[in-house]
Design a protein that fits this description.
This protein is α+β, with helices and mostly antiparallel strands. It folds into 2 domains: about 90 residues, Phosphorylase Kinase, domain 1; about 180 residues, Aminoglycoside 3'-phosphotransferase, Chain: A, domain 2. Helix content is about 45%, strand content about 15%. The strands form 4 sheets. The chain has a 5-stranded antiparallel sheet with strand order 3-4-5-7-6, with helices on both faces. Strands 1-2 form a two-stranded antiparallel ribbon. A hairpin with a 2-residue loop joins β6 and β7. The longest helix is centred in the last third of the chain and has 22 residues.
Length: about 290
């Protein structure tokens, strides 16, 4: 028997195998578990479906919110996975086609169109994430993050100033909030994307999702397409420059603080440094 233990004052014992057996009765196929981040619902996969499995009240709430947001997005014409079955303990969605294409005119065009659909959704979402809290972990964890930044190519002064400038931007647009390559799945045959993982749906400055995507694109032509789309959608170039610069800074900061220095991906960090240099130049040209 495989169990999932939830730490805290009230420890909960969850029989994941029993839940998987119940899901198998619904789908006619036994799901296999895949690795997820701590605090996230367990995830199982079958040939055609993805299953999000709750193990405590927090993950039940996340599953419920994800289902509500998927239904909302579908009504708004945003491409998302179809819900196959929903219960308090699980959410089953049809697996989106993922050809692992993350570049090229077709991919970028579809990703931009989906970001535009989110920003211009005709009805408000059923729920959104509140303002992102400060990093947790206490003083020791904060000191460790600062130490990693100090030993990185990122200037702490630039991090603080860029963050402060972005904090003053109006949050008057809806954003997916985690608009990164592994959440934008491309179906090459149809030329369309499916957007997954709606945990961070939130009000944000205009152009947020496109500026999150931008530094993660290795091809200059793709980055140019994304910036052209952002400039067309955001009248205030100075504000866009502030956001663009901050999200390039944040991308580099995430890479250097996520893991200890010996585990850094030098290739990705080098790419992020070059993207930050580009973002600084763009922001300056736009009057930020």
């Amino acid at each position: 028997m495989m169990a999932w233990f939830v730490s805290g004052f009230n420890v909960e014992f969850v029989d994941i195998e029993e839940t998987l057996a119940q899901v198998a009765k619904v789908l006619g196929e036994q799901p296999r578990l895949v690795t997820t981040r701590p605090g996230q619902p367990q995830v199982g996969l079958t040939t055609e479906c993805a299953i999000h499995i709750a193990y405590d009240d927090r993950t039940r709430s996340r599953i419920r919110e994800e289902a509500e947001r998927l239904l909302w997005a579908g009504r708004c014409g945003i491409p998302v996975p179809q819900i196959r079955d929903q219960r308090p303990e699980w959410l089953i969605t049809v697996r989106a086609v993922n050809d692992e294409v993350t570049s090229g005119e077709a991919y970028i065009g579809a990703a931009v169109a989906a970001a535009r659909a989110i920003a211009n959704a005709p009805e408000p979402p059923p729920s959104v994430r509140g303002p992102a809290p400060a990093h947790g972990g206490g003083r020791r964890a904060g000191a460790e993050r600062l130490y990693r930044i100090l030993r990185s190519p990122l200037s702490p002064a630039e991090f603080r100033s860029a963050r402060a400038a972005a904090a003053g931007l109006p949050r008057d647009t809806l954003a997916h909030g985690d608009y990164v390559l592994h959440n934008i799945l491309f179906d090459s045959q149809r030329g369309r994307v499916t957007i997954i993982d709606w945990e961070f749906l939130n009000p944000a400055p205009a152009g947020f999702d496109l500026c999150v995507l931008w530094p993660r694109l290795p091809e200059a032509a793709d980055r140019d397409r994304v910036l052209d789309a952002a400039l067309a959608a955001v009248p205030d170039r100075s504000a866009l420059g502030v956001l663009h610069h901050w999200l390039a800074v944040r991308y580099l900061a995430d890479l250097v603080t996520r893991v200890p220095r010996p585990q850094w991906s030098r290739e990705r960090i080098g790419q992020a440094v070059r993207r930050l240099s580009e973002a600084r130049a763009n922001a300056a040209a736009w009057g930020a």
